[in-house]
Amino acid sequence: MGKKYVYFFGKGKADGNGKMKDLLGGKGAGLAEMSRSGVPVPPGFTITTEVCNYFYENKKKLPKDFKAQFDQSIKKLEGAMKKKFGSTEDPLLVSVRSGAKFSMPGMMDTILNLGLNDKAVEGLAAKTGNTRFAWDAYRRFIQMYGNVVMGIEKNVFEHILEAKKESKGVKNDTDLDTDDLKQIVDKYKAAYKEKTGEDFPQDPYVQLCGARDAVFKSWMNDRAIHYRKMNKIPDDLGTGVNVQAMVFGNMGSDSGTGVGFTRNPSTGDKMFYGEYLTNAQGEDVVAGVRTPKPINELEKEMPGVYNQLRGITSRLEKHYKDVQDFEFTIEKNNLYMLQTRNGKRTAQAAIKIATQMVKENLISKEEALMRLQPEQIDQLLHPVIDTNEKLNVIAKGLPASPGAAVGQAVFTADEAVEKAKNGPVLLVRTETCPDDIHGMEVAKGILTARGGMTSHAAVVARGMGTPCVAGCEAIKVNETAKKFEVKGKTYNEGDWVTIDGSTGNVIDGKVKTIEPEISGEFGVFMKWADAIRRLGVRANADIPRDAKKALEFGAQGIGLCRTEHMFFAEERLPFMQQMILAENEQERRKALDKLFPFQKEDFKGLLKEMKGYGVTIRTLDPPLHEFLPKTREEAQELSNKIGIPADKIWAKSHELHEFNPMLGHRGCRLGITYPELTEMQAKAIIAAACELAKEGIKVIPEIMIPLVGSVAELKDQKAVVVKIADETMKEYGVKVKYMVGTMIEVPRGAVTADEIAREAEFFSFGTNDLTQMGFGFSRDDAGKFIKIYVDKKIMKADPFQTLDQDGIGQLVKIAVEKGKKARKDIKLGICGEHGGDPDSVKFCHRVGLNYVSCSPFRVPIARLAAAQAVIEGKRAKKKNGKAK
Amino acid sequence: MGKKYVYFFGKGKADGNGKMKDLLGGKGAGLAEMSRSGVPVPPGFTITTEVCNYFYENKKKLPKDFKAQFDQSIKKLEGAMKKKFGSTEDPLLVSVRSGAKFSMPGMMDTILNLGLNDKAVEGLAAKTGNTRFAWDAYRRFIQMYGNVVMGIEKNVFEHILEAKKESKGVKNDTDLDTDDLKQIVDKYKAAYKEKTGEDFPQDPYVQLCGARDAVFKSWMNDRAIHYRKMNKIPDDLGTGVNVQAMVFGNMGSDSGTGVGFTRNPSTGDKMFYGEYLTNAQGEDVVAGVRTPKPINELEKEMPGVYNQLRGITSRLEKHYKDVQDFEFTIEKNNLYMLQTRNGKRTAQAAIKIATQMVKENLISKEEALMRLQPEQIDQLLHPVIDTNEKLNVIAKGLPASPGAAVGQAVFTADEAVEKAKNGPVLLVRTETCPDDIHGMEVAKGILTARGGMTSHAAVVARGMGTPCVAGCEAIKVNETAKKFEVKGKTYNEGDWVTIDGSTGNVIDGKVKTIEPEISGEFGVFMKWADAIRRLGVRANADIPRDAKKALEFGAQGIGLCRTEHMFFAEERLPFMQQMILAENEQERRKALDKLFPFQKEDFKGLLKEMKGYGVTIRTLDPPLHEFLPKTREEAQELSNKIGIPADKIWAKSHELHEFNPMLGHRGCRLGITYPELTEMQAKAIIAAACELAKEGIKVIPEIMIPLVGSVAELKDQKAVVVKIADETMKEYGVKVKYMVGTMIEVPRGAVTADEIAREAEFFSFGTNDLTQMGFGFSRDDAGKFIKIYVDKKIMKADPFQTLDQDGIGQLVKIAVEKGKKARKDIKLGICGEHGGDPDSVKFCHRVGLNYVSCSPFRVPIARLAAAQAVIEGKRAKKKNGKAK
User: Which of A660, A747, A804 shows the shortest C-beta gap to B778?
Assistant: First the structure.
C-alpha cells in the first residue's frame, strides 16, 4: 500500500491521534483524539496536509493513490452513518472544513450541508419530517457553495433573500416558510448559473471535490497569506481538509449549537464560559446574525445536555491540560462535539489560568511558564486602546514602543515642554535627535515619519516606556508650519491624535484607553521564571529614574549606560560644544573639567541606585557632530550663548560632517584621538565609585569601550582607564573593584575576539551595530527596503527587531567561542535592542551568554523568555534523547 | 657560560657569520662573513641586537654578563692589533657603528677615531709620523663625539672651525696646520665643557661606553622611528653595535677611502661603479665635503689596490649573488674592506641586474623574481619627478595614484575639458563624484582635499593611470571662487601646480618630470613571473579603452566592470535620471528601454575587446541619488533639460537622501526592489554576447550580483537573470555560455558563504566594502583617524591600501572554506582595490583564490606579486620541511 492520505475517525475510534497536527492539522488531530477518547463527535475523515502541499507543488493535481482512499473513506462514512450520499431517502450530508497545524481563525473557508441536491433535499425532509429545515439547509448550502467554491459574491444571494423577506413583509429568516425557501432555492440556482455559466452541481461527489479543492485554494488566499506573515507561520505547512457527517442544530427547539471556553479567556477566571443558539446551525453563532444566549441558560433549557457538555469539556481540559475552546451541536437533545482546541486568551488570563492550573496540579510550573508568549507581557505594562472604541486609523507606522497614547499634536521639543503643562501632548516629528530629549520626556507619545525600529525615537521611547510609532511614512511633517498631512487631511498644533505603539496605528482624535493592572499572579508567575532561568537580565538605563524603573521590573544590574545622553542636558551641552570647538588639547581639557562634576554626579546616582549590582558604563560613542548645530541659525544661537563666532561653529559643523557617520569618527575612535575624553569619563566613574565606597555603599562599575574592532584599540583605551583609575583611587585613598571590557559590535571585533579577550574582562554584544555592519544596513535608511525584503520573503523578519541568528548570530557565536577560549571566565552579555526580543533572548541563552540587557519595560519579557529558553532546552534534550 | 653578547671578527676568522643578521645586524653579519672568507677587514667585534633590546626593556641597563664579555673583546682586539687603548705610543683607535637587521641609511649615527685623548694623540702622531693627521683626527673625534654622544649642536664646532679659517684667511680644512688644529682642539674642549658641564672624557673606555649607548639611543631617534614606519620595520628588532679597529685613509696620498657598487645601481649596467677620495676618511665621501673622484681613476693612481679591490668585490658579488654596495679604506697602500651589503637600486636596474645574473648563471629565475619589490614596477609605468629638481612642497596628501603630473589648476570638470584644449590641466576639487568623470579623463592629474585611498577620485584615477593626490587636507578648495588656499597662499585658476602621486607631495609651480621607459628585460622578466604564478590576474575596466590597456599590461580577463560608470555619460544620464524619477514601473521601463541600446553596445565593446577571456560584469551598485542633482540649481538645470518640474526632481533627491548611503539602498537591493533594472542589464549583456557569438567571436560574460548578504537575495536576482537570458537567447536563436555569481563584500555574506555558494558559480571578494563593513570604517570619512591609528601603531597600515589579513582576511578565509565546501569548483577572485597590492595579492594566493583583479596599471605588479607568492610558498615549505 502507498502513502496514507485519508484518516478516518468516529464511533470511539480513529486512524490518527492528537499528536498528528503536522499531518492532520490541528482540527483533524483534535477530532481524531476526541473520537478515540469517547467524546461524541460526528464521524468523518481528514485529508492530510501532504495532499495540500502536493496540490501546490504539482500544478493543483492530486497524488495518484489519493482517489482510491478518498472514495473508500466516503463509503466508510456512509456505512458509519448508515446514510448514502445523494440518497433521496436519507441522504448523507457533510461539512467540509480546513484545518492547518496552527489555528488560523477566520482565515479558511468552511462549507456545510454538502450533499444536498434537488432530490436529497426531499429525502432529508422526509427523514427529519421537517420540510422547512431541509429547504433552508439546501438554500444555505447553495449560498455557501456558490460563494466559497465558485467565488460568487455574497450579496448576490443576500439580495435575493432580502427581496423575498421584503416582499413578504417579514424581518427574520425564520419567518420564511417552505414555499418561500423553495422559491429562493430556484432563484439561487438561476443566479448560480448566470454567474458561473454552469448548473448548480447535483452530484454530491462533484460537490465534495469542489469543496475540497476550495479548501486547498483558500490556503493561498490573501487573508491566509497575510495572517501567516503576521504570525511567522511558514507557507509550506499546508492545510488539512476535514469531511465530517453533518449534525443539525436547527431541527427545532430541542436542537441547538454553541461555542465555549472552559475558563474565561479574558480574565482567566475559572468559569464555564460560552454562548449558544437553539434551532440554529454553527454559522449563526459565528456570524453573529442572531444574538446568542449565555451558556448558563442552557442549564435551564436542557439540563441533561448541559451536564453532559460540562462533563465532556472538563474532561477535555484535563486531557489537554489547557483551557479548551470548543464547538458543539445538539441534534434533538443529542450532544455532538464538533471541535476543541486550546483557547486563545489575553495575557492577564494566560497568567491567571497558568498559575491556577499549577495549583490544581494540572500542569507543572515549567508548563505554566510556556503558556504565555513573552511578548504578551507588554499588554500588562502599558495602556491599551479600549476595544469598544471605533477607530479612525489614518496611517500605520512601525510599532516602535508599545502602549497607547493620546495627546494634542506638538512639533518641537520646546513646544512639547510648554504645552505639556496644560495637558497631554503627542510629539510629532520627521525624526528625533538627541536634542529632542526634553520634549520626548514630557510627551505622552511620539510619532515620527522616518526611522526604523532602532531609530533614535524608537530606542529612547522604549527606554522611557513611552508609546511610539516610528517611520510612519504616510504622514508628511512640517515642523516649521507646525502641522502634518496625511491622505490630504491636515493636523495642526493642538489637534488630538492617538497612537498605538503596539500596532503602529495612528488614529484620528481622542480615543479611550485602558490603564494596565498588574495582578498578584503576575508576581508569582515571574518568580517561577526567575527560579528557572540561567540567563541574567539587566536593563539599559542612563539615569537614576530609569534605573529605578528597571529594578522594579526585576533587572539585575545595568547592562548599558550611554554616557552621551548625559551631555545633552541644557546646562551641560554648551560645555560639550566648547570641548568640540576647542582649538587644542588644553582648551579641550578646560571644557572637560567643567563636564567632570556633572558626570561624576550622574555616575554616583546610577551606581547608588543599583548598589550591589553591576553597572556597565560605556564611554562616549556618537560622532561629535551630533552635538553641534544642524543649521546656520542654530549656529548663531549657540554663538550668542557661548561667545564663539557663529562662522567658526558652522565651519566646525561642516568639518565634522561625515558621509557615513555610522562608519565614521565615533566609539573608541574618539577616545583614541582625544584621550582626555576617556580620561575625564574614567575619572568621573572611578571618583563616583570611590566616594560611594567611602560611604560604605557597594558598587561595581564596569567600564565599557565601544566599537572595538582590534585589540590594539582596546589596549590603548584600557591603558588610559587603568592609569586614571590608579591615580584617582590613590587620590581618594580607597580601592574599588572595577572592570574594563568592550562592546563586540564590529564584525572584525567578532572574528578577532580571541585577541580582544586577552584584554577584555567582559564582552557586551552590540547587536544593533553588529546587524548594521554585518548586513551593511543603515538602520536609519534600511526601513524602506527591509519592508520589501520581508514582503518578498527574502527575509523572515526585520533583523533589527529579531536577531538574525543564521548570519549575525554566527558572528556572535564565533566571538563567544573565541572569547571563552582566550579567557575562560569572560563575562558575556548583549546590550543591543535584541536583548528584549524573546527569540533573541533564547538565542543568547543557547549560545552561552551570561546576561541580556534591554530597556526597563522589556525586562519582564526577557525574564520569561530566558526561563522558556531553559525549558525548551530541556525538552529538546529529552526529545533528542528519545530519538536515540 | 651565559648568553653570548659580543661576537669577535678579524684575521680570517669570526665568531659569527653572514646569516646572523637578526642577532648581529646586517653590517655585523657582513663583517663576520667577510672576515671568514678572507676579505681584509679591520678586526673588531659586534655587540648583539639583543643587548639593544635589553637596554630598552630594562631602563637603559645592560645585561649582567655583558661587561665581562665586552672587556674581554677589547683585550682581544688590542691583541689582534698589537695596540693598546689609550696608549701614548701606539694607541688603538676604533670606529663605532650601528647596524640593524635592515639597512637604514643615514638613520643611525657613527663615531670614528674613538680612543684619542690628549696623550694618545701624541702617540698617534709619533707612530704615524704625521702630527697634523693626528691632531686633525683628534679634532674630528671631539666634534663627532660632542655632537653624536652628547648632543651638542654641530654649528657650535663649525663656528670655531670657520672662525679659525677666516682668521687665517684660508678656505679649506686642509689649509690648517698642526698648530691651528691644536688651538681648535682646545676651543672644542672648552665648548664641550661649556655645553655639557663636564670635561671631554680622556678615558677611552668611558668614550667607548658613551658611544655604544649613543648607538643604542639612536635606535629610537625620530629619524630612525620615521624610517622604520615608512618601511614597515618593527621597532623591536634593535640594532647591533660594531666596534672596529680604525684604519686611516687620511695618512697621505698613498691612502684613501671610497664607496662603490659592483654594478650600476641606476641603470643596472654591469660596470664597476663608485667613487673615492685620497687622503681622506670615509665620512668625507659620505658627507660630500670634498668632491670624490670616479673609481676608474683609482686604476691609474693605485693599480695594485684597484685590482685587489675589483677581485675582492667581484668575489663578494658571487658570494652574495647580488650587487654589492661596499666601503673601503686604503691605509698606506693597504686595502681594507669596511662594509659590504646588497645594493639598493632603481626598478629599472633591478630588472636588468636580475635578468643578467640569470644569464650569468649566478642566480635562478626564481631568485631573480624575488629581487624586485612588486611595488617598484610602478616606477616603470609612470612619469617621475626629475631628482635634480628643487621642490617647493606646499602640502602632502595621500599617494592615491602614482606618477607625477604638472598642469594648470582648474576647479570643475567642465573647466578641465575647456582648458585642456590649450595645455595640461590639473583638476583640483574638494572631492570628486561620478559626474566629474569627463573632467578627470582630460586632466593630467587630480588633487582632492578629502577622501581616502579608495575614494572616488583615487579609484577612478588609478583605473585611468592618472596621477592623483587625494585627501590633502591642508588645502582648502573653493570651487565657486576657483581657487585653493594652502598655508596662507592662494592658487587661482591657471596657476601651475605639480603633484607626485607616488609620494603624495603637492608642489608649487612647474617641475620637470621624466617619462618612463620600458626595457626589453622587463618583458623577459614578466614572462618568467607569468610562467611561475598560479594566480590569474585580471583588470578592473569599464570601457574598451581601459580593457585594451589592461590586455597590454598582461591582464587575463576583466574581473570587474562597473556598469554604473556607463550611466554618467552625457547622452545617457538624462535617461537614467528619468528612470529614477519615474512614478511607476511602466515609466521606469520606458526610460530603461532607452538605456538598453547603450548598455548593449558597451558590453559588446568590452566583450569583443577581451574575446576569449572572462568578463565579469556587475549589475548596478551605487545608490540612485548619486545620479540626481546635489543642489537646487542643478535640479533646475536638469528640469530645463528633461522637462520634469524642478520641485519634483528636488523632492526626489531629498527623498532618496540617506544618512549612511554606504549602508543604504544600493547593490542588489536596487535590483530586488526594481527587478526591471536587472532585467535591462541582463538583457543587454546576453544580447551583446549573442550578437558577438553570431559573428563567431568567443565570449564569456560573468554576471555578478553585488552586495549579497544572504542567499535569498542572490536567488531572487539570479532568477531574473536566468529568465531574461533564456528569453534573449531564444530571441537570437543562439546559445551562449554565461555565469552568474556574486560579490562577497558584506560580512554576513562571508559567514553564510556556504549557503550562497549553492547559488553562485563564482565569488568575487569586494574587499573595499568588506573592509568598510568589517571594520566599520567609511572610506570617505576614516582617513582622519586612520592616520592617527597608524601613527599610534594601533594599525600597521591603512586597511584600504593593504588588506587587513588578521581580521578582514579571516572573513575571506571563512568564505573561501565555506564556499568550496558547498561548491567544489567555485571560481574565486578579488576585485577590491587590494587586488593590486602585493602583500594582499600574496594573501590571495595563500588563501586559494583563482585570480585577483586590479586597475590596469597595477596588473604587472600583481603578476609579479603572484609569482613571488609561489616562490615564498616553496621556500616556506622547504624551511618547514627542514625544521622537521
Answer: A660
Half-sphere exposure at residue B173, Cβ-oriented, CA atoms within 13 angstroms: 19
CB atoms within 10 A of CB A875: 12
For B543-579, the pLDDT digits (tens) are 898 899 899 999 999 999 999 878 887 788 889 999 9
Place of cell 528584549: A836
Cβ contact A13:A6 at 8 Å: no
Q: Which of B663, B716, B780 sits opposite A781 (nearest CB)?
A: B663
Percent of chain A as helix, strand, coil, to the nearest 5: 50, 15, 35
Q: CA B785, B790, B791 angle in degrees (round to 5)?
A: 95
Instruction: With beta carbons less than 8 A apart as the criterion, state whether B266 and B346 touch.
Output: yes
Question: Quick one: CA torsion of B113, B119, B125, B127, rounded to 10 degrees?
Answer: -90
pLDDT band (50, 70, 90) for residue B382: confident
Q: Which helix (H) or strand (E) holds B243?
A: strand B239-245
ipTM rounded to 2 decimals = 0.79
- A755 chain-B contacts, CB cut-off 8 A: 806
Q: Which helix (H) or strand (E) holds A519?
A: none
pTM of the predicted protein model: 0.80
SS3 A166: helix
Which residue of chain B is at minimal alpha-carbon distance from A796? B712
The residue written with cell numbers 577620485 in the block is B457
Residue A200, CA distances (Å) to A146, A189, B801 in order: 8, 6, 77
Average pLDDT in chain A: 91
CA distance B430 to chain A (A): 12
Vertex B694 angle, CA B691 and B696, to 5°:
120
- Which residues on neighbouring strands pair with residue B829, listed in sequence order? B764, B851
Amino acid at B785: F
Identify the H or E element spanning A798.
none
Residue B55: phi, psi to the nearest 5? -50, -45
Q: How far apart are CA B52 and CA B46, in angstroms?
A: 12
A-B contacts at Cβ under 8 angstroms: 172
Compute the distance between CA of residue B650 and CA of residue B633 in angstroms, rounded to an integer. Answer: 9
**Which three cell numbers, joined as nine digits, stand for B372?**
624586485
- Kindly report, residue by residue over A112-135, the tens digit of the pLDDT: 889 999 999 998 888 777 888 899
At residue B181, what is the residue type?
Answer: L
Q: What is the Cα–Cα distance from B345 to A47, expressed in whole angstroms?
A: 85
* Cβ contact A519:A526 at 8 Å: no
Cross-sheet strand order for the sheet of A6-10: A13-14, A6-10, A44-47, A239-245, A94-100, A111-114
What would the pLDDT profile of A725-754 be if each residue is shown by its tens digit?
999 999 999 999 999 999 999 999 999 999
CA distances from A494 to A420, A479, A482, A512 (A): 11, 13, 10, 18
Grid look-up 575596466 returns B541
> Which of A292-306, A521-535, B511-525, B573-587 is predicted with the least confidence, judged by mean pLDDT?
B511-525
Q: pLDDT at residue B761 above 80?
A: yes
Chain B residues in contact with A806 by the CB 8 A cut-off are: 710, 752
Tell me which residue in A667, A669, A810 faces B751 most closely, judged by beta carbons.
A810
Separation CA A373–CA A371 (nearest Å): 7
Residue A47 belongs to what H/E stretch?
strand A44-47
Above 60 in pLDDT, residue A404? yes
The answer to whether the CB of A504 falls within 8 A of the CB of A787 is no
Reply yes or no on whether B657 is catalytic: no
Collect all residues of chain B within an 8 Å Cβ-Cβ radius of residue A784: 665
**How far, in Å, CA of A619 to CA of A610, rounded?**
19
Whether A776 sits inside 8 A of B773 (CB atoms) is yes
Where in the sequence numbering do the catalytic residues of A fall? 456, 831
Please identify which residue in the block is written with the cell numbers 526591471: B676
More confident position, B81 or B459? B81
Grid coordinates of B253: 696620498
